[in-house]
Automatic annotation (TrEMBL):
It holds the Pfam family Aldose_epim. It comes from the Bacteria. This is Aldose 1-epimerase. The lineage of its organism: Bacteria, Pseudomonadati, Pseudomonadota, Alphaproteobacteria, Rhodobacterales. Gene3D superfamilies: 2.70.98.10. The keyword Isomerase applies. The keyword Cell inner membrane does not apply. Keywords: Carbohydrate metabolism, Isomerase. Pathway: Carbohydrate metabolism; hexose metabolism.
Length: 333
């Protein structure tokens, strides 16, 4: 049964629910609808970074495992044209840009535990019109299910009363071998292009080829050779449009284990966790330092409202947003 994980400053409880099946066990907290712990039978450590207590999630653990939105990633200057009008959104990144839906984005909110059984959990959130500057009251439901494979599948549904922006992402930091860094992990991403960014991580314009850059993961790359080089925190362009059925967007391998990531989304933000600094002990008893995990965030492209050629992030009234992201775990070949 779900249990109390902690209490927020305003007295609201944060709940924790655990699901299991097919050798996989996953725990979630209502704060951020976050994947807090992920265990595979026969593996002696969590496959994601997380904390055993609530307090770190309010500070250094912000966004760890969370479902982020209503607009994941960044919007330049917090400004966006929506339905012919310019909207000023929250500017929570250095007072200049919108990041992950704003200072009260979904990744920092305490969701409702809507449904739970042994192999599935559903969490829900409601954003009123004007929340973080966005038009349109929005209902969101995120459902995690464990399926044969074993597979952890996330389905996100959202609707809005008015034309708005909608772009969600799952923000777990993965570490498959339990080492202090992901240096020995091999990453493959079938993206031919990426989005160059400025110093604020805002896209500069048109996609550029990954060929010859540190972001070329079309063949398996051992991350240790690149972690000391240019920053890895970019949108890799899987496609120019969303799909109704998931496609393979990444493969991560380490410690004899392979995770295959499939998603309906046309972008994958790859972030190598360079900002992580040791603080509170994680679920396996040690703090997380630089490059302790890698985030693979399936999403639409950042700053799309300011780039008409990017895949659209507009959600119309009565339209159903549906994202499916599938994490499959297998022995590494």
């Amino acid at each position: 049964m779900p249990e109390k994980f902690g209490t927020l400053a305003d007295g609201r409880p944060v709940m924790r629910a655990t699901i299991s099946g097919h050798g996989l066990t996953a725990s979630f907290i209502t704060l951020g609808a976050s994947l807090q712990d992920l265990r595979l039978t026969g593996v002696g450590h969590s496959l994601v970074l997380g904390f055993p207590e609530l307090d770190p999630y309010l500070d250094e653990g912000r966004y760890f495992g969370a479902v982020i939105g209503r607009y994941a990633n960044r919007i330049a200057q917090g400004r966006a044209m929506i339905d012919g009008h310019e909207w000023q959104l929250d500017r929570n990144q250095d007072g200049r840009h919108l990041l992950h839906g704003g200072s009260d984005g979904c990744g920092t909110r305490n969701w409702m535990l809507a449904d739970w059984d042994k192999s599935s959990v559903a969490l829900a959130d409601y954003l009123p019109s004007g929340h973080m500057g966005f038009p349109g009251a929005m209902l969101i439901r995120a459902t995690y299910s464990i399926l044969p494979g074993p597979i952890l599948m996330l389905t996100i549904l959202a609707t809005s009363e008015d034309t708005t922006l909608c772009n969600f992402a799952q923000h777990s930091y993965f570490n498959l071998d339990g080492a202090e860094t992901v240096a020995d992990h091999r990453l493959t991403v079938p993206a031919e292009n990426y989005l160059p960014v400025d110093a604020d991580m805002i896209p500069l314009g048109a996609p550029a080829p990954v060929q010859g850059t540190h972001l070329d993961f079309r063949s398996p790359v051992t991350l240790g050779g690149r972690l000391g080089g240019p920053r890895i925190d970019h949108n890799l362009c899987i496609s120019t449009q969303r799909r109704t059925t998931p496609r393979k967007v990444a493969v991560l391998q380490a410690g004899g284990l392979m995770m295959s990531l499939r998603s309906t989304e046309p972008g994958l933000q790859v972030y190598a966790g360079q900002h992580l600094t040791p603080g509170a002990a994680g679920v396996d008893g040690r703090p997380y330092g630089r490059h302790a995990g890698i985030a693979l965030e399936s999403q639409l492209w950042p700053d799309a409202p300011n780039h008409p050629a990017y895949p659209t992030t507009i959600l119309e009234p009565g339209q159903l947003y549906r994202q499916t992201t599938v994490m499959s775990f297998h022995p590494s070949p």
